[in-house]
Amino acid sequence: MFPLRRAQSPSAPTAAGLPPDRQRGALLAADLQDVPFWRRATPALIAVLLVGLADFLSGKDRYLAPLMTVVPTVAALTLKPRELLLVCSLGLLTVFGLSHHDEVDNINDARFLYGAMVSYVVLTLFSAWVAKIRMRRAAAFAAVSSVAEAAQRALLQLPGPTVGPLRLAVRYVSAADASRIGGDLYSVLETPHGTRVAVGDVRGKGLAAVQTAAVVLGAFREAAYDEAGLRGVAARIEASVERHVPDGEFTTALFAEFRTPGAMELLQYGHVPPIRVDHEGRAHVLDAPDPWVPLGLGRLAAGEPTTWAQPFGAEDVLVLCTDGVIEARHRTSGEFYPLAERVGPLVRGAARSEGELETAVGRVYADLLAHTGGELRDDALLLLIVRTDG
């Protein structure tokens, strides 16, 4: 939910919501304080240099030092108050040096220099105050962002790297810049009926999407333990969506059940088809034989959804994602990301260990960012699953 937004791996949040280092990171990123001082000071220092060169090269008959008043304004955008005073002091010294170079000795020029210096000092103090206000607002924004991210993590209840016979690796990125929350969802539960997985994508973004995601996840976490089959689980979720989600809103979803070694059962509700990558790195797109409408639109369809079985061995990798991945556009051509064509070599051999799997999801995510030029415009979820029970 998460600048470029940060990708998250499965980990448990602290009792306060987010670890202190992540809260501090949110503040630093909000006000550019994670950027070194010399880089943040560069625009103001360049302004000092340009004004000094302009005055020096224009000759002694022209006095351009008053243009130095642009420096405090530029510095207020990126520097802390104390840093601003330091850089602006350098500008003031430059004004003094230019006055000697231009031989300011008559009474009119001296008055002009005095007025320019007073204006510069006043503007510097005012800019320092503006910088302080900017930092306060950045701190408030970072606090809201951290709370929103903590709420998202609490909603998802991120699983550990191993659930039952499954090993997981995930990347989740939200397109909601201000709040770092989005409508993509996933859950992995060990139940009396086997290990069950839900992946979904709520229509829209922001808080409304999160509310719908909460309904879907809450219903799944209850039904997954109670219902003997995936169709029963999905029916319970569909009923909750119809009761608690506004008309017209829908959620694409994919459910998977792992009960028998070497096999899995799938149920698709208008979601992106899963991909199974075998031990040779070949990608197999698992299209549903009877695709069904998304959750929330069931009343518009006749009949009932059906599950279908697929092989899933110990050396296979199951790739689940949302449309934020496959609809990510190329940075120049605008073409969609060809996940099915590129994922095979990227995750080949990932079933060997937990470290290999985490490295593999990192490779896929890095390849996705390279395709888009480093920015995703939609919520994106990428989940890799392997099994450890043979």
From TrEMBL:
<dbReference type="InterPro" id="IPR001932">
    <property type="entry name" value="PPM-type_phosphatase-like_dom"/>
</dbReference>
<feature type="region of interest" description="Disordered">
    <location>
        <begin position="1"/>
        <end position="20"/>
    </location>
</feature>
<protein>
    <submittedName>
        <fullName>Serine/threonine-protein phosphatase</fullName>
    </submittedName>
</protein>
<feature type="transmembrane region" description="Helical">
    <location>
        <begin position="112"/>
        <end position="131"/>
    </location>
</feature>
<dbReference type="GO" id="GO:0016791">
    <property type="term" value="F:phosphatase activity"/>
</dbReference>
<keyword id="KW-1133">Transmembrane helix</keyword>
<feature type="domain" description="PPM-type phosphatase">
    <location>
        <begin position="166"/>
        <end position="387"/>
    </location>
</feature>
<keyword id="KW-0472">Membrane</keyword>
<keyword id="KW-0812">Transmembrane</keyword>
<dbReference type="InterPro" id="IPR052016">
    <property type="entry name" value="Bact_Sigma-Reg"/>
</dbReference>
<dbReference type="Pfam" id="PF07228">
    <property type="entry name" value="SpoIIE"/>
</dbReference>
<dbReference type="InterPro" id="IPR036457">
    <property type="entry name" value="PPM-type-like_dom_sf"/>
</dbReference>
<keyword id="KW-0378">Hydrolase</keyword>
